[in-house]
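Re: that chain you flagged

S.,

Sorry for the slow reply, it's been a week of failed gels. I finally had a moment to sit down with the sequence you sent. For the record, here it is as I used it:
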Amino acid sequence: MSVVSVFSGSFCREEGLIETLLAETGYRRLTDEMLAARASDLSSLSADLLRRSFTAKPSVFNPFTRERERCLAWLKLALAESLQETGLLLHGFCAHLVPASLSHVLRIGLIADMAYRVEAACAQLGIGPEAAAGRIRELDRDQAAWVRIFHPGADPWDPAFYDMVLPVHKTEARQSAALVKRSLAAEALQASDASLRAAREFLSAARVQAALAAEGHLIEVTVQAGAAVLTIDRPVLMQERLEEELKAAVRAATDIAEVEVRIRPASKEGAAYSRVTPDRMSKVLLVDDEREFVQTLSERLGMRDIGAAAAFDGESALELVREDEPEVMLLDLRMPGIDGIEVLKRVKAEHPQIEVVILTGHGTDVDRKQCLQLGAFAYLEKPVDIDVLSDTLKRANEKMRANVRAKKA
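Prediction finished late last night. Pasting the structure tokens below so you have them in one place:
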């Protein structure tokens, strides 16, 4: 038997084809939801966080938390375990996690023209054509962003990614199912020794990658002929020391003895590679309309191992809080539009777990008293010593995390 992977455009009424294939082949269905649940069991990550990794827009804090990369490592392991069997129908975003070396996988892309999809969305969601088209464009962005993680700049419907691209607006489900079944019968799609070996190597690589991710090392891993290759996509400081650390971690977690560490030549500039540790402070939101000040401050905090994203007005800050929920906010008071006092009020009312540190150059004693009464963790004035500021932010972060732990207990 083989494996079928299906990546479908939104509102392509793919269920008809999938249900027909499952009924006529006896294959077992494997969805993104199922893989996220399994990845959650394997890791310390929540299924909800794993599912969110499929969305187009990663968190603004992802450069510091590397949450998406952590999710991908565990999703790969869940998928690699499943692919030790044949007779599977994989449907969803995870179809693009299957390595090309697995030749017994029939890769299918399902598409339809916009008119067909709008009609389907209207019927399914009970909305008008304009709203339906907007929802389709939003989902298309998600799919394009997901595919471009693995194929930068690519069209997600490039025929090179699929063995078959089926236009469902032109072909009925039963006709498409017949085409798929004929392809599955081909000799080239049968599970050969080489293809099954590639599936086992995919599992070995996924185990290594997940083991490294658990230690805070988010690195691309391949395994071939019993040897592991670790590829780092950032510049490396103290390269020999890091290589020894990575090799020791691989050998401790697996029976792989041969380990090679590579650094991509194209990534000699930018932020240096660093291990992501659970106690790292990586979700600070800087809110100030002085852009140059914020950018400089973000860099200086980064040198102290504090990851900080920026918003340059109150409206943007509140939107980022809704989308990404920082742990600590460093907030200016005098800004155009929604001022700092109003931002503080809304944040503490809607997200009381977020600790807010005020940093202003134009405050008064009245402002100080009001901010502290509204729940600000601290009130600082510009110019501020960077060590005092970083210490204040760290104490605010410790309080926030302690409160979260207490609520879970």
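What I noticed first: The mean pLDDT is 92.

Talk soon,
D.
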